[in-house]
Amino acid sequence: MILESHVDPSSAEFRANAAYMSAYVAKVRGAENNQVETERAHGPRARAKGKLLPRERLARLLDRGAPFFEVASLAGYGMFDDSDGRFSGGKLIAGIGHIAGRRCLAVVWNYAIKGGTIDSVNVQKMLRLQEIAFRAKLPIVSLHESGGGNLDKSAAADPWAARLFVEAGRIYGQQARMSAAGIPQITVSHGNATAGGAYQVALSDVIVLVRGQTQLFLAGPPLLKAGTGEDADAETLGGAEMHASISGTGEYLAENDADAIRIAREVVASLPRDPDLADVKRDVEPPRYSPDELVGIYPEDRRRPVRIQEVLARVVDGSKFDEFRPVMDSATVCGMAAIGGTLVGVIGNNGPITPAGANKASQFIELCELTSVPLVFLQNTTGFLVGTTVEQAGQVKHSAKLVQHVANFRGPKLTVLVGNSYGAGNYAMASRALDPDFVVAWPSARQALMGGAQAAKVMQLVAEQKWAREGIEPDEKTRMGAAQQFQMIEFGLEMLSESMFCSARLMDDGIIDPRDTRRVLSYLLDVCLEGRRRTPVGSSHGIQRF
After folding, report:
1. Residue 439 DSSP SS3
2. Cα–Cα distance between 72 and 51 in angstroms, integer?
3. What is the DSSP letter of 508?
4. Nearest to 133 by CA among 509, 518, 399, 541
5. Which among 117, 109, 2, 115 has a CA at the least distance from the CA of 58?
6. For the segment 79-122, what is each residue's pLDDT rounded down to a tens digit?
């Protein structure tokens, strides 16, 4: 069936929606640009040392003109001492792109922001990147340069700082397991790599050292002097030439940044080619409605309904959607479509999830699993419907069944947070909690236990019931004070559920421009399908140096 759109791009409503969404996209891009500007300010210091800036390194690493999906660009936004994005990103510029014709996960340590030091945001982002690489069996190419643990005053504000020691250890454990699983890890040691940073380099399968720049040791000269009394310069203790010729901790010795990246690309070029997906692809037909119109689909007023079919009409090939059981519960939409030539099952929302909607989605997931069809979730729901009628209809058991089906689905799962994503509906529609391969968000996305207005109303009812039980007739001052509290609850929950707030805490893999939804989904589907076709050769222990 070809979807028919009821959106008028020339209407005042569309223009208002587009203005709201465009402003939000600009806010996201502004925060990302502030991060770039912080890096650029470090340029003179980098040039004085003969170094390339982190994004210059990335540009040389990636194939020119090939797509690059950046992961968690806003990690840490607004947290600790960041206010506008200048210190965001977790000191890592990372994503999926092509290197020497192979799809890889590229990780560039942003030494231009606080020396690329390690904190809880950095660790959590690294763990997520490793999770992506493990699942998609992607080679990892790291351009490493880190000042080690973050010891400045912002670290004291981190409530997870004490746990950092254990979480960082998980990174090393996963590096070892990836090596044993045959997932290549190629690292260029561009500069400082001390203590834990040294292990992140040393646990790689292939190491490229840079003459006059690499400083790889468990304890640097100052700590060595303090701990043992021994005097040693950085080059003798852990320089590139020492490791290349004496310790054997490295396979290649490069002359500078550019030469090291050239070598890394050559190593990647020797890896097995990406699997051919031609036999699982259909002819690609563009949507009948422009994906650029997605900027005007979602309204600023979150109470106004949005038909998920309007999104699908601008995302799926040919705007063709074979809807599954359309007569049963139109608030939960299921059906088959193609995106970029790949057949997918789509589950989306036109409202809350009822028992019938949960049953329909569960059955649809079973069919997708039997036919090895990936799932794409388009979230825009206030959650599971509540009330006596639906509870007696088995809402709890049916919603639990849907959660089980989503959690245990063995094929690729991709999630787009379009708008509202509240309560257990957030889980059942494959949020980060239920482990999809990728989660991306529109700026309009909101994730929370419930909406701010609903939470305020709940607290108002609780207060009124309490007054009634205790026989209290509150005066005007008490009522006004309570009303102010309810307003604060609403404002607080709206702030805590806001898209940039959630993305900063790695509740998704990044905020995308709605107009890019089709391109992003098509690219990530290829990543998932290639990963399931890769057959790396593993071992019981991984690559060892002797």
Report:
1. strand
2. 25
3. S
4. 509
5. 109
6. 988 999 999 999 999 999 999 999 999 999 999 999 998 889 99
Q: Please list, in sequence order, all residues whose beta carbon lies within 8 angstroms of the beta carbon of residue 359, skipping any fewer than 6 positions away.
A: 398, 401
Q: What is the separation of C-alpha 269 from the centre of its chain, rounded to a whole number of angstroms?
A: 27
| CB-based contact 210:189 (threshold 8 Å) | yes
The domain ranges of the chain are 14-269, 280-445+508-530, 452-497
- What is the CATH number assigned to the segment(s) 280-445+508-530? 3.90.226.10
Residues facing residue 98 across a β-bridge:
103
Chain segment 351-410, per-residue pLDDT in tens: 999 999 999 999 999 999 999 999 999 999 989 988 899 899 999 999 999 999 999 999
Contact 374, 344 (CB under 8 A): yes
Tokens coding 357: 């909607």
Tokens of 279: 């036999």
Select from 182, 91, 81, 180 the least CA-distant residue to 129: 91
Nearest CA among 281, 306, 286 for reference residue 296? 306
Euclidean distance between CA atoms 133 and 141, whole angstroms: 11
Question: Which of 318, 317, 294, 288 is CA-nearest to residue 307?
Answer: 294
Angle between helices 395-408 and 355-370 (to 10 degrees): 20
Residue 411 carries which DSSP code? Answer: S
How far is the first Cα of the chain from the last one, in angstroms, to the nearest whole number?
62
Do 14-269 and 280-445+508-530 come out as alike in CATH topology?
yes
Strand pairing class (446-448; 322-323): unpaired
Output the pTM of the full model.
0.93
Q: How far is CA 462 from CA 111, 134, 301, 378, 476, in A?
A: 51, 47, 26, 33, 18
Task: Kindly tell me the number of DSSP H helices and DSSP E strands found in the chain.
Answer: 20, 16
| 14-269 CATH | 3.90.226.10
More confident residue, 471 or 126: 126
Question: What would the two tokens of residue 373 be?
Answer: 């069809």
Q: How far apart are CA 317 and CA 295, in angstroms?
A: 19
Q: What is the DSSP string of 66-78?
A: --EEE--TTTTTT
Residue 453 pLDDT class (50, 70, 90 cuts)? low
Structure tokens at 121: 């945001």
